[in-house]
Amino acid sequence: MPKPKYITSVKKIEALSEEERTVAAKVSERFVFRTNDYYQGLINWDDPDDPIRRLVIPDATELNEWGRLDASMEELYTQVPGLEHKYADTALLLCNDVCGAYCRFCFRKRLFMDENDEVVRDVSAGIDYIRAHPEISNVLLTGGDPLIMSTSKLEPIIAQLREIPHVKIIRLGSKIPAFNPFRITEDPSLHAMFDRYSTTDAGRIYVMCHFNHPVELTPEAKSGLQCLQDHSVATINQTPMIRGVNDDPRILSELFNVLSFLGVPPYYVFQCRPTEGNESYSVPLEEAFEIFQESQERVSGLAKRARFSMSHATGKIEVLGLTQENILLKYHRAADSARVGKILVFRRNPSAFWFDDYAESRDYIPPKLVPVESILVA
């Protein structure tokens, strides 16, 4: 297939009716639109509820007043322009403000707005910060999508990170394996870069894939994943749970199973962040967890490794379980290291979408019901 052609105007999508194009164009004035002809080819246009259509075609509900642009308050952890340092051993380097396509549920849509200044093209300040902090062993390149960058622009960043002795793992957060696998399979210079910098001696490069639905796992996508693995790249997957896309245990379990067959372990299933524009893509937390739990009953152990979590401002909060009356949460990671591993128990709230919906209610279970040293009262 020739190089996919990018589509940046909904007016060019002939499969949409005139009315649909008008609505989508209005939404795209607020939240940027971009896709390509390869990914558009995965849409069944006869199905108004097609999951791939839902992932990338603007929807009128995005203009509903709901959520906030920086739902996880990432700004609190920005140390220098383009670098976030929230967890002691991990730094995020926002090295790009473009994606192969724009997910309608994106939690960083603020980065693609004209007034944004969080992403920098010159990452030297971020590299210097990482170099000065020996506790950082993990660096995640994100943004935006680092793999949409040309190899000639991406490689110098990775080369500089590899020169820092305490950086052992470099991660690339990318949906390119789903949006445009040809970027991976058709670039020999990218293969050479991975061969050079993802080694047993220097440390592995991880590509954190974002497959949201089994339809995305096309033969071309599978070839892209195999190509990454052939060049010593570790591949894992994470996805939010998205209303109308994968909020079905059969769909989610199929995604997990196929990924596990391909050697791509499920990593996180995230609660969709309460970001502005995301109301219709979000599933109430307890319902989402029940869907996740049922999906786990349909997969083998190798496909059962995902954690269902929220990327909250205070840390990654894992949902451990539900009883008839209570929800059990745990700090899997935390900005404040004293919170790591702490368990929280709240009264159930079927209408809750986010941790704050429980914490602000202060409807927690008295600590005497579980070991007091393991409880953190919000």
Q: What does it look like?
A:
Helix content is 27%, strand content 21%. By secondary structure, the chain is α/β, with parallel strands linked by helices. The chain has 3 domains: 6-63, no CATH class; 74-295, Alpha-Beta Barrel (TIM Barrel); 314-378, no CATH class. Strands 3-4-5-6-7-8-9-10-11-12-13-14 form a 12-stranded mixed sheet. A two-stranded antiparallel sheet has the order 1-2. Residues 364-378 have low confidence and may be disordered.
What labels describe this entry?
alpha/beta; TIM Barrel; 12-stranded mixed β-sheet; globular
List the helices and strands and how they pair.
Elements: E1 6-7, H1 18-30, E2 35-36, H2 37-40, H3 51-56, E3 78-80, E4 83-87, E5 90-96, H4 124-131, E6 138-143, H5 151-162, E7 169-174, H6 176-179, H7 182-185, H8 188-197, E8 205-209, H9 219-230, E9 234-241, H10 249-261, E10 266-271, H11 285-296, E11 307-312, E12 315-322, E13 326-334, E14 343-347, H12 355-359
Parallel strand pairs: 5-6, 6-7, 7-8, 8-9, 9-10, 10-11
Antiparallel strand pairs: 1-2, 3-4, 4-5, 11-12, 12-13, 13-14
Task: Write a short abstract of this structure.
42% of the residues are buried.
Q: What is the number of strand segments?
A: 14
Mean of all residue-level pLDDT scores: 92
Q: Rg from C-alpha positions?
A: 21 Å
Tell me roughly what share of residues is in helical segments: 25-40%
> Which superfamily, in CATH terms, is the homologous superfamily of the largest domain?
Aldolase class I
Specify the structural class: alpha/beta
Contiguous runs where pLDDT drops below 50 for at least 5 residues: 364-378
**Count of distinct structural domains:** 3
CATH class of the largest domain: Alpha Beta
Q: Can you tell me the CATH architecture of the largest domain? A: Alpha-Beta Barrel
The helix tally amounts to: 12
SSE string = EHEHHEEEHEHEHHHEHEHEHEEEEH
CATH topology name of the largest domain? TIM Barrel
Order of the strands making up the biggest sheet:
3-4-5-6-7-8-9-10-11-12-13-14
Q: Name the overall outline.
A: globular
Tell me the distance between the termini: 53 Å
Largest sheet: 12 strands, mixed
Beta-strand percentage? 15-25%
Quaternary structure classification: single chain
